[in-house]
Task: inverse folding
């Protein structure tokens, strides 16, 4: 290919992938508005929806392959492949948005709803004038992390295979893998440059202005008379205000950790099990038409092997915790260094958010040669990419939220840098750090499926040592549905158990030590 | 030699509001804090009293003008000038004792043990013996304000600045804390040399001050000065007391 052709095809690939991403994001927003508002408004639906959302967000993209293929591809091979890809991107973008909508609509000031009642607003009017405006700011702020998450998994969505079916859609993922297989370094660099430029453009022109759009005046003034004006004001959605800091990764973490906190441990474990088995059951029934189902259920555990599952879990666990630990180690000093320099922290935040939405999976081919003999290092870097930003942005937000009066006292007492960090910054950052770690660890577990075994078309890079992500990837690409369901059960159970028995405990311990609630 | 320990010289300050407007808070203010005096500054809420104290403490750099401590410009916080904030701000994860010790960390040539002994003695002085190992969350508002006072005094400052220290206390606690501050002042050997008390509450200013400066509403300027010539402790019910209160109200309106 000559240079012009390479540039043209790269440009088209990025364009097509971004269109897919945009389509998935639009579907995510629509889905979130419907499901999130319903859960926020209707108590019985809330009881079902929140736990289900919690399970769904803990399922890595590979877990949705069978559904994508069975539902979309099987339905219409012509558009099915495209729909399947969009569906898969959707599954890595949607849950945080849905939860943000749920929370925004669930915790609307009761006075506002009283006023709506007294004005006899219809359901539609309520939605239009209260619920929709209430959730828009948080929807918009979740765009960027959702986009970053979708890009992380785009390769998996564009090149999906399950058993005999293999779908390959034109896009950045496919193109990069072809260049990589052909050893076309120039091609890889071209795609990457265009991708980076496009990512910067989308962020600078779209996400950042959208995110700051709601950052206007202070909170609406109280008082009975003002309430009607307040509703009117709400009706113009872009004028609503939120006092929280605008760091979209912080938004993401807020959504996800909120979800985690809503569900009880035993409940979520049991539901996980039932839910996943049910899905596995139905899907397997659909595929095998019922004949071999019970036989295969029995065989599955024997085939995958309990010891295999356990050792994979241990290795994955070590990788995840290593990545979280590494993120913590650099995030704290970095955040402390910039937190009290507003211009610097705005600049760093902007740059990091853009960097975070450039997918390592697509950058990887550039380093494929260098990292060929370092599979563990490659996996670690990739898990880190799915982990570190949550920790960093959360710590930064924690530091930025230190009450002004405490900083003034620290100034007044002329605390030296180290004393200041130890006595004021760290205690204030710690709770935020832990909630950041929860989200980060969740992201890391999801990220394992590409980190431990990256499938870029014909280019496959996997760790030598076992891992749940690797196992899940192998089983899924081989079309072993029950096998992958069993891995999913193990994986999401670990996430739930860790959240409850480690992170939550750690948080409570820190909170009681710091005398904060 | 000058009889002023702290001089505020032609200080002006403005804030920039979020909408970009300029809010003029203090305008060409000049006054002295004399050695040994208890100076009251009274002004309406929002007139710029807190801003003024923060400037005097070196926490905020004024847009123009300067503050001189014993003739030298104040460029930042110093142990010689202590500020008690309007809200009692204590670090909740540190014990009462640790909160007070924190103020001593900047002092050179003092061992950890000496810090603890010193902090302890100031806690005793404000009546908090036995609460050293409590956490701020377990204390009442009045007790917190006492810890803050101990923290402000522990470095032996020459000037103590107090920003409406009684405004967040219930009336009874406020009375006893005012009495305590009065009594601390009777100690000849104890710091601080001079006290500046800022408040919108005219009665408490008259009760405690030797001299009162009355501020205009924003932007704050000094409109009048009244010397209060009454023995302490002062009885709020005497006609004399009310003459002073009335005089100040007249200046304020
Ligand atoms: N950091 C700040 N930024 C902008 N405006 C401020 C800031 N601090 C105080 N102000 C405004 O300056 C005015 C004076 O405030 P302050 O000094 O706290 O007055 P006071 O203590 O007399 O009530 C008020 O209108 C207040 O809203
Ligand atoms: Mg004030």
Result:
């Amino acid at each position: 290919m000559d240079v012009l052709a390479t540039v043209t095809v790269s440009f088209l690939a990025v364009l097509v992938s971004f269109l897919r991403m945009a389509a998935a994001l639009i579907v995510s927003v629509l889905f979130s508005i419907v499901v999130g508002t319903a859960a926020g408004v209707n108590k019985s639906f809330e009881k079902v929806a929140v736990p289900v959302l919690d399970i769904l967000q803990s399922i890595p993209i590979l877990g949705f392959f069978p559904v994508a293929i069975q539902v979309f591809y099987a339905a219409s091979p012509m558009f099915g492949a495209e729909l399947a890809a969009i569906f898969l991107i959707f599954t890595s973008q949607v849950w945080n948005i849905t939860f943000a909508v749920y929370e925004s609509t669930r915790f609307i000031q009761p006075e506002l709803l009283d006023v709506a009642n007294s004005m006899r607003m219809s359901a539609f009017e309520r939605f239009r004038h209260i619920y929709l405006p209430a959730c828009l700011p948080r929807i918009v702020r979740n765009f960027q992390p959702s986009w970053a998450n979708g890009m992380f998994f785009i390769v998996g969505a564009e090149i999906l295979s399950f058993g005999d079916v293999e779908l390959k859609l034109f896009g950045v993922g496919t193109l990069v893998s072809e260049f990589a297989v052909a050893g076309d370094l120039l091609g890889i660099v071209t795609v990457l440059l265009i991708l980076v430029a496009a990512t910067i453009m989308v962020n600078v022109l779209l996400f950042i202005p959208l995110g700051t759009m709601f950052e206007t005046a202070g909170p609406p003034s109280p008082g009975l008379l003002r309430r009607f004006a307040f509703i009117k004001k709400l009706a113009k959605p872009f004028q609503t205000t939120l006092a929280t800091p605008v760091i979209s990764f912080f938004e993401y973490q807020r959504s996800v950790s909120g979800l985690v906190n809503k569900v009880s441990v035993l409940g979520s474990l049991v539901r996980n099990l039932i839910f996943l088995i049910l899905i596995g059951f139905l899907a397997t029934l659909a595929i095998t038409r019922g004949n071999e189902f019970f036989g295969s259920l029995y065989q599955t555990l024997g085939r995958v092997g309990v010891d295999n599952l356990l050792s994979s879990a241990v290795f994955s666990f070590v990788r995840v915790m290593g990545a979280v630990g590494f993120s913590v180690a650099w995030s704290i000093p970095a955040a402390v260094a910039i937190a009290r320099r507003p211009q610097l922290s705005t600049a760093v935040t902007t740059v990091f958010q853009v960097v975070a939405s450039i997918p390592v999976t697509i950058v990887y081919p550039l380093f494929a040669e260098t990292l060929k003999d370092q599979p563990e290092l490659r996996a670690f870097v990739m898990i880190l990419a799915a982990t570190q930003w949550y920790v960093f942005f959360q710590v930064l937000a924690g530091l930025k939220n230190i009450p002004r009066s405490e900083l003034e006292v620290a100034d007044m007492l002329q605390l030296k840098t180290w004393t200041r960090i130890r006595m004021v910054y760290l205690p204030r950052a710690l709770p935020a750090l832990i909630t950041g770690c929860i989200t980060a660890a969740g992201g890391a577990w999801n990220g394992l499926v590409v980190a431990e075994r990256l499938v870029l078309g014909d280019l496959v890079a996997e760790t030598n040592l076992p891992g749940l992500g690797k196992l899940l990837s192998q089983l899924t690409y081989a079309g072993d549905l029950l096998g992958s369901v069993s891995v999913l059960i193990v994986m999401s159970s670990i996430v739930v158990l860790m959240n409850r028995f480690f992170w939550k405990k750690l948080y409570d311990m820190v909170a009681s030590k710091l005398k904060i609630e | 030699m000058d009889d002023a320990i702290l001089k505020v010289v032609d200080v002006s300050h403005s804030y920039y509001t979020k909408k970009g407007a300029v809010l003029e808070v203090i305008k060409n203010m000049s006054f002295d804090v004399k050695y040994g005096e208890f100076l009251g500054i009274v002004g309406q809420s929002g007139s710029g009293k807190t801003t003024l104290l923060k400037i005097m403490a070196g926490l905020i750099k004024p847009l123009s003008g300067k503050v001189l401590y014993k003739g030298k410009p104040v460029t930042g916080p110093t142990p010689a000038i202590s500020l008690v904030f309007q809200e009692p701000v204590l670090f909740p994860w540190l014990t009462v004792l640790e909160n007070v010790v924190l103020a001593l960390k900047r002092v050179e040539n003092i061992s950890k043990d000496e810090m603890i002994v010193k902090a302890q003695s100031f806690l005793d002085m404000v009546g908090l013996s036995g609460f050293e190992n409590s956490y701020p969350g377990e204390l009442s508002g009045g007790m917190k304000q006492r810890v803050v006072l101990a923290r402000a005094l522990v470095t032996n400052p020459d000037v103590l600045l107090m920003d409406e220290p009684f405004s967040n206390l219930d009336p009874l606690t406020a009375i006893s804390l005012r009495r305590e501050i009065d009594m601390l002042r009777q100690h000849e050997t104890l710091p601080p040399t001079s006290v500046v008390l800022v408040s919108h509450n005219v009665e408490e200013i008259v009760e405690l001050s030797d001299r009162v400066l009355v501020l205009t509403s924003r932007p704050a300027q000094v409109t009048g000065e009244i010397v209060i010539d009454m023995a302490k402790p002062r009885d709020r019910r005497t006609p004399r007391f009310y003459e002073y209160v009335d005089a100040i109200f007249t200046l304020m309106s």
About this structure: Chain A has one domain: 3-220+305-516. Chain A is about 80% helix and 5% strand. The pocket of adenosine-5'-diphosphate (ligand 1) is lined by residues B 15, 17, 23, 25, 43, 45-51, 218 (CB under 6 Å).
